[in-house]
Amino acid sequence: MTGAASALGERQTADSGPASATAASMRALTLVAGRKIELLQVAPPALPGRGEAQIAIKAIGLNHIDVWGWRGMAFAKRKLPLVVGAEAAGEVVAVGSDVETLKAGDRVVAYGALTCGICKACREGRDNFCENVGGVLGFHVDGFARDLINMPTRLLIPIPAGVSFRDAACAPIAFATVQHMLFDNAKLEPGESILVQAGGSGIGTAAIKMAKAIGCTVYTTVGDDSKAEKAKALGADHVINYRTDRFEGAVRKLTGKKGVDVVFEHVGPDTFNGSLLCLKRGGRLVTCGSTSGQSTTLNLFQLYTQQYRIFGSFGASMRNIRESLAKMAAGLLPVIDTEVPLADFERALARLESRQVFGKIIVLF
Ligand SMILES: [Zn+2]
After folding, report:
1. How many angstroms does the Cα of residue 106 sit away from the middle of ligand 1?
2. Which conformational region is residue 215 in: left (phi greater than 0), alpha (psi within -120 to 50 degrees), or beta?
3. Ligand 1: distance of its center to the CA of 328 in Å?
4. pLDDT digit string, tens, across residues 330-354
5. Per-residue pLDDT for 198 more than 60?
């Protein structure tokens, strides 16, 4: 990685094809200013060092964190230019001299943050609580949208046979985040009821499928009728168009005024208080995002009298990624909105930002 990062100073506009381990240069999709991404030609990384593997990137999953990075976020400490791409799958092309767990030709996904691997949280497998995290790839530090990257092998996870690069590229952030939210934080149980907000999003579609897979009753919100049909086809029991219906009223009516056990939130101020009103007494709300803004007000009387539990959730553990890949291998596959070439990365971000998507956008190398 250091090879690619240090080469960014002498970059040129790129027009050539994929690099190999021996090529003189490689492509790197680089954020050079707010809302400005360029496909540049940079030096490839050095051969992988001890404990490292060199990965040829095959597919990148887009997430809202990419939109935040593209727009520019006031509180994100980072330097431009920055190689984008936070979620990826690829193939090992070389390994360091001491590496025995992986070999050239192995297919892997990578953890999306540079955890230290030695702090208490890392040792306990709570990777997203690392005390010395070196940043989120593609957001704070150079990311995956380049032909080659060197990664510590401890942050790589093999892709099971039968799972494509395209689908596996949804495991490190989208699937693993949902896995962590539903099962580590909200402790969703078979047979419970859940409201999934924005059911057409990448994580919303994953949440619907994971909840249905364990026999939950799923309520979900979407922004237009064509998405309603698609959400039903995924197995959602009740789909509410939030533009034509007040979803909190609809959920209370559909549940006989009892409310649901769990709400899956990531929209933020536009829906947060309505989401709380959808919970039954003692219900759990878990949130991993706030795409509609950062702050809201909270009715504290309602919070404690209704004994709600609210979980903030960010990222996932290495275990969550393994669990996600195992689900894919068993047939629970991500919903893919579109597959686009590297050159369409920015257009794809605009599509994600405008909420036209149903499922995940994948950028292929
Ligand atoms: Zn750590």
Report:
1. 26
2. left
3. 28
4. 999 999 999 999 999 999 999 999 9
5. yes
